[in-house]
Amino acid sequence: MYTNLKHKWAIIFGVLLIGILMVTGVPKSKDELVANIKKNLRLGLDLKGGSHLVVQLQVPDAFKAEADVAIERLQANITPKGVTYSSMDRSDPQTIQAADSVQINIKGVPIDKVTVLRQAASEVLPEWVFSSVNSSDFVLKLKTSEALRLRREVVDRAVTTIDRRINALGLSESTVSPRGRAGQEAEIMIQMPGVDDPAHVKSILSTAAKLELAEVKAGPFSTRAEADQNKPFNSRVVPSSPKSGETGFYVLGRTPVVTGRDLKNARPQRSNDTGGWETSFVLSAEAGKRFGNFTERHINDRLAIVLDDHVNSAPTIQGRIEDQGVINNIGDEQAATDLALVLRSGSLPAGLKYLAESTVGPSLGADSIRSGVIAGLVGLVAVVAAMLIYYRGAGVNATIALIFNSILLVGAVSYFEAVLTLPGIAGIILTIGMAVDSNVLIFERIREELASGKAIPAAIEAGFDRAFVTIIDTHVTTVFSCAILFLFGSGPIKGFAVTLVIGLLVNLFTAVFVSRTLFQWTLNRNPQMRELSI
Question: Do 110 and 225 belong to one domain?
Answer without folding.
Answer: no
